[in-house]
Amino acid sequence: MVLIEILFTLAIISVLVFLLFKVSNLIINTGLIIIIILLILFLIFNVNILFETIKGPIQGEVNDNFDLTEEECRKIGGDYGRHGIAQNLYCNPPTSDGGNICNKSDECEGLCMLSDDGKGYCQKYKYQFGCFSALQTDGVIALCVD
C-alpha cells in the first residue's frame, strides 16, 4: 500500500508541476502559481490523510501467529481454528481489551462490537469474520468480513 501511495503522490505532483510550467509560460499569474505550490506542499506532507478514508475501519495487519501450534495459541488465549472464507488454519490472537464495555471503536484495540443487548463490547480476537455491527464515532456501521 505504501508503494501505491508514493506512486499516486508522485503522479499528482507531476501533473501539478506540469500545470505550473504551462500556466507560467502562457500567463504569469502569481496567485495560481502560489495555489499550485501550496497544493504540492499539502500533498507532500499530508498524503496519508487521503488514504485514511480509503482504508476503512478495519486496519488489517500481517498475522504473525501462523506458526503457533494449537497448544501455544490456547496458552495466549487465542482461537485456534479455521478462519475466514478461505478457512485457513491458524491462531487468531486475543485483543488486550476483549470484552470490555465501549461506546466507539476508538476505545478498543479492535472494533467496538454492538451486541444483541444494545451495548458495545471490544472485540475478543484480533481478526473478526462474518457480518456484524460496530460502533464508530459517527454512528453504527454494518460490516461483513471474510
Span of the ends, CA to CA: 20 Å
Q: Which strand order do you get reading across the main beta sheet?
A: 3-5-4
Spatial shape: elongated
Radius of gyration: 22 Å
Number of separate helices: 3
The main sheet comes to:
3 strands, antiparallel
How many domains? The number is 2
Give helix % range. 25-40%
Mean pLDDT: 76
Along the chain, the helix and strand elements come as HHHEEEEEEE
- Classify the secondary structure makeup into a structural class: alpha+beta
Low-confidence stretches: 48-62
Strand content: 15-25%
Write down how many β-strands occur, each being a DSSP E stretch of 2 or more residues: 7
Task: Give a short summary of the structure.
With about 150 residues, this protein is an alpha+beta fold.
Describe the structure in your own words.
The longest helix is centred in the N-terminal third of the chain and has 26 residues. This protein is 39% helix and 22% strand. Strands 3-5-4 form a 3-stranded antiparallel sheet, with no helix packed on it. Strands 1-2 form a two-stranded antiparallel ribbon. It is built from 3 helices and 7 strands. The protein has 2 domains: 54 residues, no CATH class; 76 residues, no CATH class. It is elongated. It is of the alpha+beta class.
